[in-house]
Amino acid sequence: MPNLSGIVNQAIQTSKYPIILDRSLISSNMSAPQVIDWSRIMAKVCEITGARVRRGGKIHRSGLAKKKGGIGRHVTKVIKRDVSPNLRKKRIWVPELNKYVKVKLTARALKTVAKNGAYATLKKAGII
């Protein structure tokens, strides 16, 4: 079995996200254990812009508007809700590296990649 501490330490130093080692994926024929970064997979966060889930409110109103002859609209309750970013999982081709890079990004960040180029945008975000 390979030295796990060296591989895990290297993964922790190179990743900007917390690392979780899945020992169930280690088999005898593998040369190195599989290191899975669950927080990167599960989080609803754009890797380029940092956009994340926000809390918002929906206002419920009742009554007839004044311009329609009523006494005005009144707030009856405010409901808390989550406002999620418009996330996509994409494989972006980076010609400078001659390979694809998997990223989770918002639609706005995808427009930034198209405008500024894949390598420059991913490098600035610290992904490559």
Write up this protein.
- By secondary structure, the chain is an alpha+beta fold.
- The chain is built from four helices and six strands.
- It has helices spanning about 5-15, 40, 105-115, 120-125; strands at about 20, 35, 55-60, 75-85, 85-95, 100-105.
- Helix 3 (about 105-115) crosses helix 4.
- It is elongated.
- The mean pLDDT is about 85.
Q: Can you give me a brief rundown of this structure?
A:
The protein is of the alpha+beta class and 128 residues long. Helix content is 27%, strand content 30%.
N-to-C CA distance: 30 Å
- The assigned structural class equals alpha+beta
**Poorly predicted residue ranges:** none
Q: What's the β-strand tally?
A: 6
What does the overall shape look like? elongated
What does the main sheet amount to? 2 strands, antiparallel
Provide key terms for this protein.
128 residues; alpha+beta; two-stranded antiparallel ribbon; 6 strands; 27% helix; 30% strand; elongated
Task: List the topology elements.
Elements: H1 4-14, E1 20-21, E2 35-36, H2 38-42, E3 54-62, E4 74-83, E5 87-94, E6 99-106, H3 107-116, H4 118-125
Antiparallel strand pairs: 1-2, 3-4, 5-6
Helix pairs in contact: 3-4
